[in-house]
Design brief:
The complex is a heterodimer of chains A (147) and B (95).
Chain A: H1 12-26, H2 33-48, H3 52-59, H4 67-71, H5 77-96, H6 99-104, E1 123-126, E2 131-134, H7 141-145
Antiparallel strand pairs in A: 1-2
Helix pairs in contact in A: 1-3
Chain B: H1 3-12, H2 19-30, H3 36-48, E1 52-54, E2 64-66, H4 68-93
Antiparallel strand pairs in B: 1-2
Helix pairs in contact in B: 1-2, 1-3
The chains are: A mainly alpha (147), B mainly alpha (95).
Chain lengths: 147, 95
């Protein structure tokens, strides 16, 4: 599991500013679920608060040639919501389709069910009355369960 | 201020440090190892608030230092914490 791959899903400006530092930090220790969860939390935070990186980009020495151009990108509520929706879809789609289970080699997904054979009406003979009774889960059910 | 922010300001109070050094310092003083997501989320907020500033990078590692307003903010937070701990200790003693 390469946690650094998650960095690709951070906003571009965030990656430009902190990507190298975060990758360096990730390289200092073995990956773990805890680290993955922390990085995912950071990822969501970065998409929800893209404005946090603006002042940081402007203040960084010898970095920020592209910051003015990048600042023209939409940072409004709609753009933010769109980013969060994309991120949510990105995370939830593999879960919903069972891809996670598949990759873990223990998918719980069941195959497409075969259509049930159609059961035609069943009749039992009511010997006392000398007639055939329909075997339904109603009035004459006892004939079927206790013929 | 978040607990991560307070820990980072405390870590930078004696000298500038890069992310990895901050992470190790916080782990040694609090027993809590901040993950990269939490650490850089807090660093971004502190930079935006001008409590810390980035220095020239040394390879992939960029050091950060506490600013004057960051030192003031840390002092205010510590003062508030001191009041809380004093109150907590006094109330616990009464039990």
């Amino acid at each position: 599991m390469k946690l650094a791959l998650l960095l690709r899903f951070y906003p571009a400006r965030w990656r430009q500013r902190y990507g190298e530092e975060i990758a360096d930090l990730l390289a200092t220790e073995p990956p773990s679920v805890r680290r993955a969860v922390d990085l995912l939390r950071g990822l969501i935070d970065a998409h929800l608060h893209p404005e946090l990186v603006d002042s940081a980009l402007a203040a960084v020495p010898a970095a920020g040639e592209r910051s003015a151009e990048m600042r023209t990108h939409a940072t409004g509520t709609v753009a933010r919501l769109a980013r969060v929706a994309m991120l949510t879809a990105l995370i939830l789609t593999p879960v919903a389709t069972g891809a996670v289970g598949y990759y873990l080699g223990r998918s719980q997904g069941s195959p497409v069910a075969e259509p049930r054979p159609r059961v035609e009406a069943v009749y039992v003979l009511d010997e006392r009355a000398g007639v055939w009774r329909p075997c339904t889960n109603g009035t004459f059910w006892h004939f079927c369960s206790n013929p | 201020m978040s607990s991560e922010g307070l820990l980072i300001l405390t870590s930078l109070a004696d000298a500038p440090k890069h992310g990895y050094a901050i992470q190790l310092d916080i782990a040694s003083m609090s027993g809590r190892r901040l993950g990269p997501g939490s650490l850089y989320g807090a660093i971004a907020r502190l930079e935006t608030a001008k409590y810390i500033e980035a220095l020239k990078a040394d390879g992939p590692r960029r050091p950060y230092r506490l600013t004057a307003s960051g030192a003031t903010a840390l002092a205010v937070e510590l003062d508030a914490l001191r009041k809380v701990t004093t109150t907590a200790a006094r109330r616990l003693a009464l039990r």
